[in-house]
Amino acid sequence: MPDIYTAREMAKKRPKSTNKPDIPRRIQTEDIIKELKKNIPEKKAPLEIFLIAPRHEGFEIQEEQEKIILFLRPHWFTTLRWLFLTLVFLITPAIIKPILPAVFFDWGDKLVDAATILWYLFTLTYFLRNFLSWYYDVYFVTDERVVSIDFKNMMSKQISDTKIDRIQDISLSQKGFFQSTLDYGDVLIQTAAEKPLFTFKAVPSPKSVVEVVQKLILQEEAEFYQQVTTDREPKNA
Amino acid sequence: MLDTPTSISLIFTFLLKIGFLLLTTIFIGFAVLFIRQVKVMTEAVHDPLNPKLRIISWAYLILTAAIFIFFIFYL
Lengths: 237, 75
Known about the structure:
The structure holds two protein chains of two kinds. Chain A is α+β, with helices and mostly antiparallel strands. Chain A has helices at 7-13, 25-39, 80-103, 109-135, 176-182, 206-232, and strands spanning 50-52, 58-59, 68-72, 138-142, 145-150, 158-163, 167-173, 184-191, 197-204. In chain A, strands 1-3-4-5-6 form a five-stranded antiparallel β-sheet. By secondary structure, chain B is an all-alpha fold. Chain B has a domain at 32-75. At the A-B interface, strand 2 and helix 4 of A face helix 1, strand 1 and helix 2 of B. Strand 2 (58-59) of chain A pairs antiparallel with strand 1 of chain B.
């Protein structure tokens, strides 16, 4: 009786799959960084809001081999409100001082000077508090995960992260004239993790951020496929 | 004997001085909190500006303390 099908012989004859993505992980991350640097000029000034593969920036829970691809801060336009108020507070004594004796009784020079000093101290406090709140409200995109660090007020710290392979959906939102003109907006990341929605608020160039995360997701999927294919390969007898 | 408007003025001035000293004390407390918060922030985020911001936070505390001492002698 002729053989209809012989598994062992078929296995020998079956050609090896050529569809496996076998590019090493490290090179792919470098490719992403190179492409970003081609499209966006590299900046090294302090107070930067968009840095590609920064060398000096990092975060507390960063792993040793983890490479930061993007470092983001809210766009400088979001600081205009408190900067403007700081300016108003600075010029207020010059406006109030001449009319103070008319409004209240004459305080005397010493008390007026003391009030002015306290007012400037308050202005400095207001500026420092808002500056720190903006400066340390940062987002990282690494080759492993996305990280959001936020200090809501002077008493609390919130560090949230999610692995790239747990990201289910990513989108961007640019509303209004200023966001469109200055190219900044929110990046919304839907995850399968404990925290279902990540928001990168008012980050510059949100389209680039979305593209980078999408490439990282593809990279993770390719690695997963490679791993599965390697596990399923029949061992030679 | 002081007339009533002058005595009210003196009491009000005295209360203002106490108020200023109290406010400065609150600012000193805030400066201490500020130093702690800057420490937490600089530990969470590694940035080239971190050492300068730590110095600024201490300078802020020294400034508020100096203003407090100045008010004690000046007012």
